[in-house]
Design a protein that fits this description.
Blueprint (H helix, E strand, L loop, with lengths): L17 H17 L3 E2 L5 E3 H7 L5 H6 L1 E4 L5 E4 L4 H10 L9 E11 L11 E10 L4 H17 L6 E6 L6 H13 L7 H9 L10 H7 L11 H16 L4 E3 L11 E8 L8 E7 L3 H4 L7 E7 H11 L12 E5 L2 H16 L4 E3 L6 H11 L3 E5 L1 H6 L1 E6 L5 E5 L3 H10 L1
Parallel strand pairs: 1-5, 7-8, 12-13, 12-14
Antiparallel strand pairs: 2-4, 3-4, 5-6, 6-11, 7-9, 9-10, 10-11, 14-15, 15-16
Helix pairs in contact: 1-5, 5-9
Length: 424
Amino acid sequence: MLITKAPKGVGEVLPQDSYRWQAIEDCMRETCRRFGFREVRVPTFEHTELFLRGVGGTTDIVQKEMYTFEDKGGRSITLKPEGTAGVARTFVEKGLANLPMPVKMYYLYSPVFRYEQPQAGRLREHHQFGVEVFGAEQPSMDAEVILLALRVIESLGIHGLEVHLNSIGCPKCRPAYMDKLRAYFGEHRETLCPTCQGRLERNPLRIFDCKSEICQGVVAGAPSVQEALCEECQAHFTALQGYLRDTGVTYRVNPRLVRGLDYYTRTVFEIIAPQIGAQSTVCGGGRYDRLIEEIGGAATPGIGFGMGMERLLIALEKYGDMPMEEPPLLDVYLAPMGEVAKEKAFSLAQDLRSAGLAVDTDHMGRSLKAQFKYADKTGCRFVGVLGDNELAEGVLHVKDMKTSQECNIPLAEAAAFFRGALEE
């Protein structure tokens, strides 16, 4: 009987599937390198206050979804529900503001924890790829971040993407817009769901995020934020669109688009793969010019995005055209016959590995036929047979599994032989 099972809403990456993750991670790393980004790695958990101040107490994440507990020292600790706040805390605490601006960072395979009903591509523990940029307030930076996200997704062979854009204003123009929303939604208070009735006074912008069809019907008639932007926000948004047009990016301005976190200002965006279906948003982000100041640092503009890796894999496996065949596990498999040969094969395997080859040998006491069968399953190119006759002659009997050709090679020349053959 199985002692225990994995908790609800978590997943595993099995050995036979890990190559898929590695393929997209390699693509992400290379794309970030080309854009001048460096990797950052931050803790899995933080003090709860960071998310209360940074993410915002009016968000569903803080109110409903965080994994929060008290540690043995009586401190309130939270498993991170998103990536940006932790990177922002690192930026402030570690003095990264002293680096040349802008500071451009990315993170990979970053675990994120949210207590919500598990769904396709969004588990209670899922993983994000994201970028964060601090110090640049120009709209060209907004465009570059969007282009980086598109470049990653399209490099994986996922096409037909839609970019949705909006600007939600700044502290100068948003308060007046929020008043308009309160007045409008106040007229429809009794129609709104209980959750949105609670949002009405605290943050009516969150009502746009509600999934209720009734609330969405009310949202359809709400005042547009585009009509409320101040001159600076409108100029920023117009310039961003110009940069995107100049680089051939097709986009749609969606005045109902908001992001689910309180730290966003001005630009917000989503990248959608419509062919996936209901859970079609593969990337979301925007500008957060007040976040660093909110958590105790000097006023510093910022922008970034998060991309769910599980959801991206779903899109890739269903609709991408990037080759996803598992690469061969080994270059060479050494098949010994007898104990003396087994000891020599073990030693030879270490020498070949030191020469840069992927090599394995028998650890199960299999027959020669069973060893060949196992070697074939690994996808290895060569099998080297070592028995009493080969030991006496100082050779390795090699079979090319691709061409079925066989030959004997001196043991001392094995590394050079295999490397030369694999490079052809």
